[in-house]
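Standup notes, structure subgroup. Blocker cleared on the flavin-adenine dinucleotide input:
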Amino acid sequence: MIIAGGGIGGLATALTLHQIGVPCVVLEAVREVRPLGVGINLQPNAVRELCDLGFSEVDLDRVGLPAREWALVGLNGNDIYSEPRGRLAGYNWPQYAVHRGLFHVLLHEAAIQRIGSQAVRLGERVTGYRKTPGGGVCALVEHADGSTSELHGALLIGADGIHSAVRAQMHPDQPPIHWGGAVMWRGTTWGKPIRTGASFVGLGTHRHRVVFYPISHPDPQSGLSMINWIAEVTMDNSDGWQQSGWFRQVPTADFAHHFDGWVWDWLDVPALIRDADCAFENPMIDRDPVNTWQDGPVLLLGDAAHAMYPTGSNGGSQAIVDARMLGAAMVEHGVTPDALAAYDAKLCGPISQLILRNRGAGPFGLLNMVDDRCGGTFDNIDDVIPPAERTGFMAGYKAAAGFAIEALNKAAPIIPHRARVRARQAVAGGA
Ligand SMILES: Cc1cc2nc3c(=O)[nH]c(=O)nc-3n(C[C@H](O)[C@H](O)[C@H](O)COP(=O)(O)OP(=O)(O)OC[C@H]3O[C@@H](n4cnc5c(N)ncnc54)[C@H](O)[C@@H]3O)c2cc1C
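Run returned:
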Protein backbone atom coordinates (compact mmCIF):
# COMPACT_ATOMS: atom_id res chain seq x y z
CA MET A 1 0.00 0.00 0.00
CA ILE A 2 1.17 3.52 -0.74
CA ILE A 3 0.72 6.47 1.59
CA ALA A 4 1.29 9.98 0.18
CA GLY A 5 2.48 12.25 3.01
CA GLY A 6 4.43 11.42 6.16
CA GLY A 7 2.77 13.89 8.54
CA ILE A 8 0.82 12.85 11.63
CA GLY A 9 -1.96 11.19 9.61
CA GLY A 10 0.34 9.37 7.16
CA LEU A 11 2.62 8.03 9.90
CA ALA A 12 -0.29 6.94 12.12
CA THR A 13 -1.63 5.08 9.08
CA ALA A 14 1.73 3.39 8.40
CA LEU A 15 2.06 2.30 12.04
CA THR A 16 -1.52 0.99 12.03
CA LEU A 17 -1.06 -0.95 8.79
CA HIS A 18 2.15 -2.47 10.12
CA GLN A 19 0.32 -3.50 13.31
CA ILE A 20 -2.39 -5.34 11.35
CA GLY A 21 0.07 -6.98 8.96
CA VAL A 22 -0.29 -4.85 5.82
CA PRO A 23 2.97 -3.85 4.06
CA CYS A 24 3.15 -0.17 3.16
CA VAL A 25 5.47 2.63 2.11
CA VAL A 26 5.19 6.35 2.87
CA LEU A 27 6.22 8.88 0.20
CA GLU A 28 7.04 12.21 1.88
CA ALA A 29 7.79 15.39 -0.07
CA VAL A 30 10.31 16.98 2.32
CA ARG A 31 13.93 15.84 2.15
CA GLU A 32 14.55 15.97 5.86
CA VAL A 33 12.30 15.45 8.90
CA ARG A 34 12.61 18.39 11.30
CA PRO A 35 10.56 19.13 14.44
CA LEU A 36 8.37 21.84 12.82
CA GLY A 37 5.34 23.57 14.26
CA VAL A 38 4.30 24.63 17.72
CA GLY A 39 1.57 23.22 19.98
CA ILE A 40 -1.26 20.83 19.20
CA ASN A 41 -3.68 18.94 21.40
CA LEU A 42 -4.14 15.19 21.36
CA GLN A 43 -7.64 14.50 22.64
CA PRO A 44 -8.33 11.42 24.81
CA ASN A 45 -9.81 9.53 21.83
CA ALA A 46 -6.52 9.96 19.95
CA VAL A 47 -4.37 9.20 23.01
CA ARG A 48 -6.29 5.95 23.39
CA GLU A 49 -5.34 5.03 19.82
CA LEU A 50 -1.69 5.96 20.43
CA CYS A 51 -1.70 3.63 23.46
CA ASP A 52 -3.19 0.87 21.29
CA LEU A 53 -0.34 1.55 18.86
CA GLY A 54 2.15 0.84 21.63
CA PHE A 55 3.09 4.37 22.73
CA SER A 56 3.30 4.90 26.48
CA GLU A 57 2.57 7.97 28.57
CA VAL A 58 6.33 8.13 29.19
CA ASP A 59 6.77 8.57 25.41
CA LEU A 60 4.15 11.32 25.33
CA ASP A 61 5.62 13.03 28.40
CA ARG A 62 8.80 13.53 26.38
CA VAL A 63 6.96 15.59 23.76
CA GLY A 64 4.26 17.27 25.87
CA LEU A 65 2.25 17.06 29.07
CA PRO A 66 -1.23 15.92 30.16
CA ALA A 67 -3.73 18.78 29.95
CA ARG A 68 -5.73 19.44 33.12
CA GLU A 69 -8.09 22.29 32.26
CA TRP A 70 -9.81 24.11 29.38
CA ALA A 71 -10.90 27.67 30.21
CA LEU A 72 -12.34 30.75 28.55
CA VAL A 73 -11.71 34.15 30.10
CA GLY A 74 -13.28 37.51 29.19
CA LEU A 75 -11.34 40.65 28.33
CA ASN A 76 -11.90 41.91 31.88
CA GLY A 77 -10.00 38.84 33.15
CA ASN A 78 -13.16 37.17 34.57
CA ASP A 79 -13.81 33.46 33.95
CA ILE A 80 -16.48 32.60 31.39
CA TYR A 81 -16.17 28.83 31.50
CA SER A 82 -13.77 26.20 32.71
CA GLU A 83 -13.79 22.44 32.82
CA PRO A 84 -11.33 19.72 33.73
CA ARG A 85 -9.69 17.82 30.92
CA GLY A 86 -8.36 14.31 30.38
CA ARG A 87 -8.37 11.93 33.34
CA LEU A 88 -9.52 14.72 35.69
CA ALA A 89 -12.67 14.98 33.57
CA GLY A 90 -13.32 11.23 33.89
CA TYR A 91 -11.80 9.96 30.65
CA ASN A 92 -9.90 6.69 30.90
CA TRP A 93 -7.12 8.32 28.86
CA PRO A 94 -5.37 11.66 29.28
CA GLN A 95 -5.49 14.56 26.85
CA TYR A 96 -2.00 15.70 25.86
CA ALA A 97 -0.78 19.14 24.85
CA VAL A 98 2.30 18.42 22.74
CA HIS A 99 4.91 20.11 20.61
CA ARG A 100 3.74 19.21 17.11
CA GLY A 101 7.28 18.82 15.74
CA LEU A 102 8.56 16.64 18.57
CA PHE A 103 5.46 14.46 18.38
CA HIS A 104 5.90 14.14 14.61
CA VAL A 105 9.52 13.03 15.09
CA LEU A 106 8.36 10.47 17.70
CA LEU A 107 5.98 8.93 15.13
CA HIS A 108 8.60 9.05 12.39
CA GLU A 109 11.24 7.30 14.50
CA ALA A 110 8.72 4.64 15.56
CA ALA A 111 7.83 3.98 11.91
CA ILE A 112 11.50 3.55 10.96
CA GLN A 113 12.19 1.34 13.97
CA ARG A 114 9.16 -0.90 13.54
CA ILE A 115 8.75 -1.08 9.76
CA GLY A 116 12.30 -0.52 8.56
CA SER A 117 14.57 2.19 7.19
CA GLN A 118 12.73 2.21 3.83
CA ALA A 119 9.31 2.76 5.46
CA VAL A 120 9.37 6.50 4.78
CA ARG A 121 10.94 7.69 1.51
CA LEU A 122 11.91 11.34 1.88
CA GLY A 123 12.13 13.78 -1.03
CA GLU A 124 9.34 11.97 -2.95
CA ARG A 125 6.37 14.17 -3.82
CA VAL A 126 3.19 12.53 -5.09
CA THR A 127 1.85 14.69 -7.93
CA GLY A 128 -1.19 12.56 -8.80
CA TYR A 129 -2.34 9.01 -9.53
CA ARG A 130 -3.43 6.70 -12.31
CA LYS A 131 -5.88 3.89 -11.69
CA THR A 132 -4.65 0.73 -13.38
CA PRO A 133 -6.88 -1.60 -15.39
CA GLY A 134 -7.70 -4.73 -13.42
CA GLY A 135 -7.29 -3.02 -10.04
CA GLY A 136 -4.63 -1.16 -8.14
CA VAL A 137 -3.23 2.31 -8.64
CA CYS A 138 -0.01 4.03 -9.69
CA ALA A 139 1.21 6.98 -7.64
CA LEU A 140 2.94 9.57 -9.84
CA VAL A 141 6.10 10.57 -8.01
CA GLU A 142 8.44 13.53 -8.41
CA HIS A 143 11.86 13.00 -6.81
CA ALA A 144 13.99 15.63 -5.10
CA ASP A 145 16.34 15.77 -8.15
CA GLY A 146 13.40 16.59 -10.44
CA SER A 147 13.14 13.13 -12.02
CA THR A 148 9.80 11.32 -12.01
CA SER A 149 8.59 7.75 -11.65
CA GLU A 150 5.50 5.71 -10.91
CA LEU A 151 4.90 3.37 -8.00
CA HIS A 152 2.23 0.69 -8.22
CA GLY A 153 0.20 -0.43 -5.21
CA ALA A 154 -3.12 -2.01 -4.30
CA LEU A 155 -4.36 1.22 -2.72
CA LEU A 156 -3.17 4.83 -2.37
CA ILE A 157 -3.89 6.86 0.75
CA GLY A 158 -3.67 10.63 0.23
CA ALA A 159 -2.44 11.94 3.61
CA ASP A 160 -0.72 14.89 1.98
CA GLY A 161 -2.26 17.68 4.06
CA ILE A 162 -4.38 20.73 3.30
CA HIS A 163 -2.70 21.37 -0.09
CA SER A 164 -3.20 17.73 -1.11
CA ALA A 165 -2.31 16.84 -4.71
CA VAL A 166 -4.31 13.61 -4.40
CA ARG A 167 -7.44 15.55 -3.41
CA ALA A 168 -6.89 18.09 -6.19
CA GLN A 169 -7.02 15.27 -8.73
CA MET A 170 -9.94 13.52 -7.04
CA HIS A 171 -11.96 16.76 -6.86
CA PRO A 172 -10.71 18.94 -9.72
CA ASP A 173 -13.58 21.40 -9.28
CA GLN A 174 -13.09 21.96 -5.57
CA PRO A 175 -13.21 25.63 -4.59
CA PRO A 176 -9.98 27.35 -3.47
CA ILE A 177 -8.93 27.28 0.16
CA HIS A 178 -11.47 29.03 2.38
CA TRP A 179 -10.32 31.88 4.63
CA GLY A 180 -12.87 33.42 6.99
CA GLY A 181 -10.78 36.50 7.94
CA ALA A 182 -8.98 35.31 11.10
CA VAL A 183 -5.20 35.60 11.17
CA MET A 184 -3.18 33.63 13.71
CA TRP A 185 0.32 34.36 14.91
CA ARG A 186 1.83 31.44 16.77
CA GLY A 187 4.92 31.01 18.87
CA THR A 188 6.39 29.54 22.03
CA THR A 189 7.86 31.33 25.03
CA TRP A 190 9.37 29.91 28.21
CA GLY A 191 7.22 30.98 31.15
CA LYS A 192 5.62 30.00 34.42
CA PRO A 193 2.50 27.90 33.78
CA ILE A 194 -0.61 29.39 35.40
CA ARG A 195 -3.86 28.06 36.96
CA THR A 196 -3.57 24.24 37.15
CA GLY A 197 -0.08 24.26 35.61
CA ALA A 198 -1.52 22.55 32.51
CA SER A 199 -4.41 24.82 31.54
CA PHE A 200 -5.55 25.76 28.04
CA VAL A 201 -6.76 29.37 28.27
CA GLY A 202 -8.66 31.28 25.58
CA LEU A 203 -8.91 34.97 26.47
CA GLY A 204 -10.67 37.85 24.71
CA THR A 205 -13.49 37.99 22.23
CA HIS A 206 -14.30 35.79 19.28
CA ARG A 207 -12.72 38.33 16.87
CA HIS A 208 -9.71 39.25 18.97
CA ARG A 209 -8.17 36.76 21.35
CA VAL A 210 -5.13 34.98 22.62
CA VAL A 211 -4.92 31.27 23.40
CA PHE A 212 -2.08 29.76 25.40
CA TYR A 213 -1.12 26.51 27.11
CA PRO A 214 2.07 24.79 28.25
CA ILE A 215 3.48 22.03 26.03
CA SER A 216 6.28 20.81 28.26
CA HIS A 217 6.61 19.71 31.84
CA PRO A 218 8.25 22.48 33.90
CA ASP A 219 12.01 22.46 34.02
CA PRO A 220 12.87 21.14 37.54
CA GLN A 221 15.44 23.90 38.07
CA SER A 222 13.69 27.00 36.70
CA GLY A 223 10.04 25.92 37.03
CA LEU A 224 9.49 27.25 33.51
CA SER A 225 7.52 25.40 30.80
CA MET A 226 7.41 25.97 27.09
CA ILE A 227 4.19 27.98 26.63
CA ASN A 228 2.50 27.70 23.26
CA TRP A 229 0.52 30.80 22.30
CA ILE A 230 -1.73 31.82 19.45
CA ALA A 231 -2.58 35.51 19.02
CA GLU A 232 -5.56 35.95 16.75
CA VAL A 233 -7.37 38.86 15.09
CA THR A 234 -10.27 38.66 12.64
CA MET A 235 -10.13 41.19 9.80
CA ASP A 236 -11.96 42.04 6.62
CA ASN A 237 -11.45 39.18 4.17
CA SER A 238 -13.29 40.61 1.18
CA ASP A 239 -10.03 40.98 -0.84
CA GLY A 240 -8.87 37.46 0.05
CA TRP A 241 -5.50 36.56 1.57
CA GLN A 242 -2.96 38.99 0.09
CA GLN A 243 0.31 37.50 1.37
CA SER A 244 2.18 34.98 -0.72
CA GLY A 245 2.06 31.59 1.00
CA TRP A 246 -0.03 30.37 3.88
CA PHE A 247 2.63 30.00 6.52
CA ARG A 248 5.58 32.33 7.13
CA GLN A 249 7.91 33.44 9.86
CA VAL A 250 7.37 37.10 10.89
CA PRO A 251 8.90 39.48 13.45
CA THR A 252 6.71 39.80 16.56
CA ALA A 253 6.72 43.59 16.04
CA ASP A 254 4.47 43.02 12.99
CA PHE A 255 1.49 42.09 15.13
CA ALA A 256 2.29 42.71 18.84
CA HIS A 257 0.49 46.09 18.74
CA HIS A 258 -2.87 44.29 18.45
CA PHE A 259 -2.34 43.20 22.07
CA ASP A 260 -1.02 46.41 23.66
CA GLY A 261 -2.44 46.79 27.16
CA TRP A 262 -3.45 43.11 27.47
CA VAL A 263 -1.91 42.97 30.93
CA TRP A 264 -3.48 41.57 34.12
CA ASP A 265 -1.81 40.74 37.42
CA TRP A 266 -1.72 37.06 36.35
CA LEU A 267 -0.83 37.50 32.66
CA ASP A 268 1.26 39.82 30.47
CA VAL A 269 0.40 39.10 26.82
CA PRO A 270 2.80 41.70 25.29
CA ALA A 271 5.68 40.09 27.26
CA LEU A 272 4.59 36.60 26.20
CA ILE A 273 4.76 37.65 22.55
CA ARG A 274 7.93 39.77 22.90
CA ASP A 275 9.92 36.98 24.58
CA ALA A 276 9.23 34.38 21.88
CA ASP A 277 12.14 32.99 19.83
CA CYS A 278 10.15 33.49 16.64
CA ALA A 279 6.57 33.71 15.43
CA PHE A 280 4.66 32.25 12.50
CA GLU A 281 1.80 33.95 10.72
CA ASN A 282 -0.91 31.94 9.13
CA PRO A 283 -4.48 32.69 8.20
CA MET A 284 -7.09 30.39 9.71
CA ILE A 285 -8.06 28.31 6.70
CA ASP A 286 -9.99 25.19 5.87
CA ARG A 287 -11.61 23.57 2.86
CA ASP A 288 -15.24 23.23 1.93
CA PRO A 289 -16.36 19.64 2.55
CA VAL A 290 -16.57 17.27 -0.44
CA ASN A 291 -19.14 14.50 -0.84
CA THR A 292 -16.65 11.62 -0.85
CA TRP A 293 -13.04 10.91 0.09
CA GLN A 294 -12.77 7.86 -2.15
CA ASP A 295 -12.05 7.29 -5.81
CA GLY A 296 -11.88 3.49 -6.29
CA PRO A 297 -8.49 2.42 -4.86
CA VAL A 298 -7.64 5.96 -3.68
CA LEU A 299 -8.63 7.52 -0.35
CA LEU A 300 -8.11 10.83 1.47
CA LEU A 301 -7.20 10.94 5.16
CA GLY A 302 -6.32 13.61 7.74
CA ASP A 303 -6.14 17.24 6.57
CA ALA A 304 -6.27 16.11 2.92
CA ALA A 305 -9.80 14.88 3.66
CA HIS A 306 -11.00 17.41 6.21
CA ALA A 307 -8.72 20.39 6.89
CA MET A 308 -10.58 22.32 9.59
CA TYR A 309 -10.20 25.39 11.76
CA PRO A 310 -8.12 24.58 14.84
CA THR A 311 -10.81 26.01 17.16
CA GLY A 312 -11.76 22.51 18.31
CA SER A 313 -8.12 21.44 18.78
CA ASN A 314 -8.90 18.23 16.91
CA GLY A 315 -7.17 18.27 13.48
CA GLY A 316 -4.23 16.13 14.63
CA SER A 317 -6.45 13.91 16.79
CA GLN A 318 -8.87 13.26 13.94
CA ALA A 319 -5.99 12.29 11.61
CA ILE A 320 -4.95 9.61 14.14
CA VAL A 321 -8.53 8.37 14.54
CA ASP A 322 -8.89 8.26 10.72
CA ALA A 323 -5.84 5.99 10.50
CA ARG A 324 -7.32 3.62 13.06
CA MET A 325 -10.75 3.60 11.38
CA LEU A 326 -9.05 2.73 8.10
CA GLY A 327 -7.19 -0.10 9.83
CA ALA A 328 -10.47 -1.42 11.27
CA ALA A 329 -12.10 -1.31 7.83
CA MET A 330 -9.18 -3.32 6.42
CA VAL A 331 -9.43 -5.92 9.17
CA GLU A 332 -13.04 -6.36 8.07
CA HIS A 333 -12.78 -6.01 4.28
CA GLY A 334 -9.11 -6.67 3.48
CA VAL A 335 -6.83 -4.40 1.47
CA THR A 336 -9.58 -3.57 -0.97
CA PRO A 337 -11.56 -0.60 -2.25
CA ASP A 338 -14.44 -2.01 -0.16
CA ALA A 339 -12.46 -1.14 2.96
CA LEU A 340 -12.02 2.42 1.67
CA ALA A 341 -15.75 2.64 0.93
CA ALA A 342 -16.60 1.47 4.48
CA TYR A 343 -14.30 4.14 5.96
CA ASP A 344 -15.73 6.80 3.66
CA ALA A 345 -19.31 5.86 4.55
CA LYS A 346 -18.57 6.07 8.27
CA LEU A 347 -16.53 9.27 8.44
CA CYS A 348 -17.03 11.60 5.49
CA GLY A 349 -20.52 12.82 6.47
CA PRO A 350 -20.04 13.43 10.21
CA ILE A 351 -16.54 14.91 9.91
CA SER A 352 -17.69 17.23 7.14
CA GLN A 353 -20.31 18.50 9.60
CA LEU A 354 -17.54 19.08 12.12
CA ILE A 355 -15.63 21.24 9.60
CA LEU A 356 -18.66 23.50 9.35
CA ARG A 357 -19.18 23.46 13.10
CA ASN A 358 -15.57 24.55 13.71
CA ARG A 359 -16.09 27.32 11.10
CA GLY A 360 -18.87 28.58 13.32
CA ALA A 361 -16.27 29.01 16.15
CA GLY A 362 -16.41 25.47 17.60
CA PRO A 363 -16.20 25.50 21.40
CA PHE A 364 -15.13 29.17 21.26
CA GLY A 365 -18.78 29.86 20.36
CA LEU A 366 -19.28 30.76 24.02
CA LEU A 367 -17.19 33.89 23.35
CA ASN A 368 -19.61 34.88 20.57
CA MET A 369 -22.50 34.48 23.01
CA VAL A 370 -20.80 36.69 25.60
CA ASP A 371 -20.12 39.31 22.91
CA ASP A 372 -23.68 39.23 21.60
CA ARG A 373 -25.27 39.44 25.03
CA CYS A 374 -23.12 41.99 26.86
CA GLY A 375 -20.40 43.24 24.50
CA GLY A 376 -17.80 41.19 26.39
CA THR A 377 -18.01 43.06 29.70
CA PHE A 378 -19.58 41.37 32.71
CA ASP A 379 -19.15 40.94 36.46
CA ASN A 380 -20.73 37.54 36.91
CA ILE A 381 -20.94 35.22 33.91
CA ASP A 382 -24.01 33.50 35.40
CA ASP A 383 -25.99 36.68 34.66
CA VAL A 384 -24.97 36.49 30.98
CA ILE A 385 -25.02 32.74 30.23
CA PRO A 386 -26.50 30.52 32.97
CA PRO A 387 -24.29 27.54 33.99
CA ALA A 388 -26.64 24.95 32.46
CA GLU A 389 -26.55 26.73 29.11
CA ARG A 390 -22.73 26.85 29.15
CA THR A 391 -22.45 23.17 30.03
CA GLY A 392 -25.08 22.22 27.43
CA PHE A 393 -23.25 24.14 24.71
CA MET A 394 -19.94 22.37 25.44
CA ALA A 395 -21.58 18.93 25.71
CA GLY A 396 -23.06 19.39 22.23
CA TYR A 397 -19.66 20.21 20.77
CA LYS A 398 -17.91 17.32 22.50
CA ALA A 399 -20.47 14.77 21.35
CA ALA A 400 -20.09 15.96 17.73
CA ALA A 401 -16.29 15.81 17.91
CA GLY A 402 -16.22 12.32 19.43
CA PHE A 403 -15.00 13.44 22.85
CA ALA A 404 -18.11 12.47 24.86
CA ILE A 405 -16.69 10.92 28.04
CA GLU A 406 -19.03 8.01 28.71
CA ALA A 407 -19.30 7.07 25.04
CA LEU A 408 -15.51 6.96 24.64
CA ASN A 409 -14.90 5.06 27.90
CA LYS A 410 -17.52 2.43 27.02
CA ALA A 411 -16.60 2.05 23.34
CA ALA A 412 -14.81 -1.11 22.23
CA PRO A 413 -11.33 -0.51 20.79
CA ILE A 414 -11.48 0.69 17.17
CA ILE A 415 -9.11 -2.16 16.22
CA PRO A 416 -9.52 -5.25 18.40
CA HIS A 417 -6.34 -6.32 20.21
CA ARG A 418 -4.17 -8.56 18.00
CA ALA A 419 -6.50 -8.19 14.99
CA ARG A 420 -4.73 -8.84 11.70
CA VAL A 421 -5.66 -8.65 8.03
CA ARG A 422 -5.75 -12.27 6.88
CA ALA A 423 -3.29 -13.19 4.13
CA ARG A 424 -6.07 -13.98 1.64
CA GLN A 425 -7.54 -10.52 2.20
CA ALA A 426 -4.24 -8.71 1.79
CA VAL A 427 -4.06 -9.38 -1.96
CA ALA A 428 -5.49 -6.95 -4.53
CA GLY A 429 -2.63 -5.19 -6.32
CA GLY A 430 1.09 -4.91 -5.58
CA ALA A 431 3.01 -2.94 -2.89
C1 LIG B 1 5.28 21.78 8.92
C2 LIG B 1 3.93 21.75 9.59
C3 LIG B 1 3.74 22.47 10.78
C4 LIG B 1 2.50 22.45 11.41
N1 LIG B 1 2.34 23.14 12.58
C5 LIG B 1 1.18 23.11 13.24
C6 LIG B 1 1.02 23.78 14.49
O1 LIG B 1 1.94 24.39 15.00
N2 LIG B 1 -0.19 23.70 15.12
C7 LIG B 1 -1.24 23.02 14.57
O2 LIG B 1 -2.33 22.98 15.16
N3 LIG B 1 -1.13 22.36 13.39
C8 LIG B 1 0.06 22.39 12.71
N4 LIG B 1 0.18 21.70 11.52
C9 LIG B 1 -0.97 20.99 10.99
C10 LIG B 1 -1.24 19.70 11.74
O3 LIG B 1 -0.08 18.94 11.85
C11 LIG B 1 -2.31 18.95 10.96
O4 LIG B 1 -3.49 19.73 10.94
C12 LIG B 1 -2.72 17.63 11.56
O5 LIG B 1 -1.69 17.03 12.27
C13 LIG B 1 -3.24 16.66 10.49
O6 LIG B 1 -2.14 15.94 9.96
P1 LIG B 1 -1.97 15.47 8.46
O7 LIG B 1 -0.94 14.38 8.53
O8 LIG B 1 -3.25 15.18 7.84
O9 LIG B 1 -1.38 16.74 7.70
P2 LIG B 1 0.05 17.42 7.80
O10 LIG B 1 0.52 17.43 9.21
O11 LIG B 1 -0.07 18.71 7.08
O12 LIG B 1 1.02 16.45 6.99
C14 LIG B 1 1.03 16.33 5.58
C15 LIG B 1 2.38 15.77 5.17
O13 LIG B 1 2.37 15.51 3.78
C16 LIG B 1 3.52 16.05 3.17
N5 LIG B 1 3.15 16.36 1.79
C17 LIG B 1 2.44 17.43 1.33
N6 LIG B 1 2.20 17.31 0.02
C18 LIG B 1 2.76 16.14 -0.37
C19 LIG B 1 2.83 15.45 -1.60
N7 LIG B 1 2.24 15.96 -2.70
N8 LIG B 1 3.48 14.26 -1.66
C20 LIG B 1 4.06 13.73 -0.55
N9 LIG B 1 4.03 14.35 0.65
C21 LIG B 1 3.37 15.52 0.75
C22 LIG B 1 3.88 17.25 4.02
O14 LIG B 1 5.25 17.58 3.90
C23 LIG B 1 3.52 16.75 5.42
O15 LIG B 1 4.58 16.05 6.02
C24 LIG B 1 1.41 21.70 10.85
C25 LIG B 1 1.59 20.98 9.66
C26 LIG B 1 2.85 20.98 9.03
C27 LIG B 1 3.04 20.18 7.76
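Discussed briefly. The mean pLDDT is 92.
Next: hand off to the docking folks.
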